[in-house]
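Write out the bound-state structure for manganese (III) ion.
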Amino acid sequence: MMNAPLDRRQFLQISALTAGAALVPAAAPAAQTLPALPYGFAALEPHIDARTMEIHHGKHHAAYIKNLNTALDGAPDLASKALPDLLNALPSIQDETVRNTIRNNGGGHWNHDFFWKIMAPPASSGAPSSELGAALQTTFGSVDDFKKAFGEAGTKRFGSGWAWLIVQNGKLKVISTPNQDNPRMKGIVGDSDLGTPILGLDVWEHAYYLHYQNRRPDYIAAWWNVVNWPEVSSLYASATK
Ligand code: MN3
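---
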């Protein structure tokens, strides 16, 4: 164990003991941590099964955070930035490997943190606020027509990615992004897909395959039962005030 590498905490402790406080390196950035789910793994049953939620949160989301922290260990000038500022800095990252690692894993972290919050147990799903309902009707014709357009964005996204409802210049729009990109990534996603996300749907196979296998449209249809409409309505109000 003589040559075991020091972790950051040990390094700082030893630095503080041997060099004095003035020579301790700049404060270590707070590593990104896995946020707790706002409900239990089984809370979204039967629409999203507990095992899928357990793996999705505890393995997939956790892996994005682990990989993000590893990338930030090698990019000290970025490590002090919190999400979403880190995503805003993506276009300025010169090293392509670092940029892509943060794009994929920082995006994955932000997207999943968002995704957990815009879902709720079926009994708490609620309905769009009158303001959001009116905007959905104006933009898409009806709430059902909105769901159809959003569902198509998720169904037609080839491979892995997300469907989003965004506020762009004060107006609602449905878009989709590949991989872990999101509508906040200026300079990374096209300008026509930029905006403030108020609803997002993960259509990676890991989000549904255990229960739905290849039936992505069935997953999307069931998912409407666990949308947290009060939260989405609140995000809409913030994005349009
Ligand atoms: Mn996912």
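---
The first strand starts at residue 161 and ends at 168.
The domain at 50-117 is CATH 1.10.287.990 (Helix Hairpins).
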